[in-house]
Write a structure and sequence with these properties.
single chain, 566 residues, alpha+beta, Aldehyde Ferredoxin Oxidoreductase,  A, domain 1, 6-stranded mixed beta sheet, 24 helices, 40% helix, globular
Length: 566
């Protein structure tokens, strides 16, 4: 057994109530690290099956740093095939589930089959049971969690996952979501309502002193970072600290991306929410940053993507309705980004802006699949196509764009197109160097050098998701410091290049699995709107359309750097 891993993993077949504990293969740990890497490898022989095929696995995987003193070591990855996009799909999730699972003695869970009735998986250290959950059917997240009890950690689905909403989420510990891509509906297709886990084991570390030194190095860099611990940083205001910054850069998606500036964005900035709701810090287990925010009455304060999309994207400046929209999405278990984007698509189709009350009612109809919500629950691409207006869907590979207008950052534009899971800001996160100017500052309105930057960032983030660390740490630290951490935990001899090689291995396997499902060059593109319409013009400030020929040239350079054949 390699230090940092439990050496045991859990295989559950819900069709026949079979539970099997197996050794975690050493080659899986060496070549794919953990988390996202584990899941992609474990999915490779199943990827051509539909998401609701009983043989399609749902994988929950920890990483080698989970349960150790390494900063932000409390995360996990959930992996399957997306009901929304059809791509291989993973989500990185915080909370405490990863730590409890690791302490229960397992590196990952691979779930297949379909239960004959609604079920709950209960894991208490080495004791695993599949229990009847028919009484939980139809209940949303908070009611389900109350009945499960507070001990340990849990992941549940709301009625959206039960109803097969294509962007339903898995909700961990109440408000940490495997949000994007519809993995909650994979769980629902298996008639799995919840998983409850409690563990009290210890995680073996190869060299505790070396880990302490690595932690000290990482924490010193974090403390010196204005983006993390600065006066207006993530620790102080959460990810909503980005609201003012993205507004100032005139690249906030507004009215279904018809514009890139929303004059009333200040109504829902991180500062505004902290002042109105008395937001306090909370966060994932093992995290010093504590970027999650909770109001004085325990309101969950939304993340940047959620406030921006229920705000600017839908032309809504009413903060209480944005807070309530986020709460409803958590209760039903649906992705805020795809929910808000699909509603914005519907609003443009109807040629009218929805009122705050209409917006909230639309969320309920989507979660319940009632009325027009039944169509919208299919996602913006299927909805717009069914109404013969596919150009109204602001999505790549069927995944709706997050809250960064690509006309305002060309590296982001390229990374949306190349992402293996669809329009995702977190595959490469070019906003780091294009807006936050970390680790280097670049011209955001140029494709020069972006192909290589995107490729390296994609590989790096595949490593981060497999270590199951938090991407925010890498605004300050680098893989060099984390190589020290993983070596101290596992006794391996990684350096930056060996970690990037593992990230590349993971990325290319994802690309291969997507190709098996028919994805190719035609899918590495952006909606036409970004090539034909400007985002914002006022005086000397101009957020213009993207030049398609420059975009195509950058894409060709990216393919060459990646080593893709024609």
């Amino acid at each position: 057994m390699i230090h940092g891993y439990t050496g045991k993993s859990l295989y559950i077949d819900l069709s026949n109530n079979n539970i099997e504990i197996s050794d975690t293969p050493d080659n899986l740990c060496n070549d794919y690290i953990g988390g996202r890497g584990f899941g992609v490898n474990l999915l490779k022989n199943h990827i051509t099956k539909s998401y609701d095929d009983p043989d399609m696995p749902l994988i929950i995987a920890t990483g080698p740093l989970v349960g150790t003193a390494a900063p932000t070591s409390g995360r996990l990855s959930v992996i399957s095939r997306s009901p929304l996009t059809g791509t291989v799909f993973d989500c990185s999730v915080g909370g405490k589930f990863a730590t409890e699972l690791k302490r229960a003695g397992f590196d990952f869970i691979k779930i297949t089959g379909k239960a004959s009735k609604w079920s709950v998986i209960s894991i208490e250290n080495g004791a695993i049971k599949i229990e009847d959950a028919e009484s939980l059917k139809g209940k949303n997240v908070s009611d389900t969690r109350e009945l499960l009890g507070e001990r340990g950690s849990d992941v549940v689905i709301g009625s959206a996952g039960e109803n097969g909403v294509r962007f339903a989420s898995m909700v961990f510990d109440g408000h940490y979501l495997a949000g994007r891509g519809g993995l909650g509906s994979v769980m629902g297709a298996k008639r799995l309502k919840a998983i409850k886990v409690t563990g009290n084991g210890e995680i073996n570390v190869h060299d505790p002193d070396a880990l302490d030194r690595a932690r000290t190095d990482i924490m010193r860099l974090l403390r010196a970072s204005p983006a993390i611990f600065g006066e207006f940083g993530l620790s102080e205001y959460g990810t909503a600290a980005l609201v003012d910054l993205i507004h100032a850069r005139r690249m906030e998606p507004t009215n279904n991306f018809r514009s890139s500036v929303f004059p009333d964005a200040g109504n829902y900035s991180g500062y505004a929410m902290k002042k109105k709701y008395g937001a306090k810090k909370t966060g994932c287990r093992g995290c010093p940053i504590l970027c999650k925010k909770q109001g004085g009455n325990k309101e969950v304060i939304p993340e940047f993507e959620s406030v921006s999309h229920f705000g600017a994207l839908n032309g809504n400046s009413d903060l209480p309705s944005i807070i309530e929209a986020n709460r409803l999405c958590n209760e039903f278990g649906i992705d805020t980004i795809s929910t808000a984007s699909t509603i914005a698509c519907y609003s443009e189709f109807e040629e009218r802006r929805l009122s705050p009350d209409e917006l909230l009612n639309m969320i309920k109809m989507i979660g319940e699949r009632s009325g027009i919500g039944d169509e919208l629950a299919e996602g913006s691409t299927r909805f717009a196509t069914s109404r013969s207006r596919p150009e109204l869907s602001m999505a790549v590979k069927g995944l709706e764009l997050p809250a960064y207008d690509p006309r305002g950052a060309y590296g982001m534009a390229l990374s949306f197109a190349t992402s293996n899971r669809g329009a995702c800001h977190l595959r490469a996160y070019p906003i780091s160097y294009e807006i936050l100017r970390k680790p280097v500052a670049v011209d955001r309105f140029s494709f020069e050098g972006k192909a290589r930057m995107v490729k390296i960032s994609e590989d790096m983030n595949a490593v981060v998701d497999s270590l199951t660390a938090c991407k925010f740490v890498f605004f300050a630290a680098s893989l060099e410091e984390y190589a020290g951490a993983i070596n101290a935990v596992t006794g391996s001899e990684h350096d930056v290049q060996s970690l990037l090689k593992a990230g590349e291995r993971i990325w290319l396997l994802e690309r291969e699995l997507n190709e098996k499902n028919g994805f190719g060059r035609k899918d590495d593109d952006l909606p036409d709107r970004f090539f034909t319409e400007s985002g914002y013009e006022e005086g000397s400030i101009h957020i213009g359309q993207i030049d398609r020929s420059s975009f195509v040239d950058a894409l060709k350079r990216y393919y060459k750097i990646r080593g893709y054949d024609p």
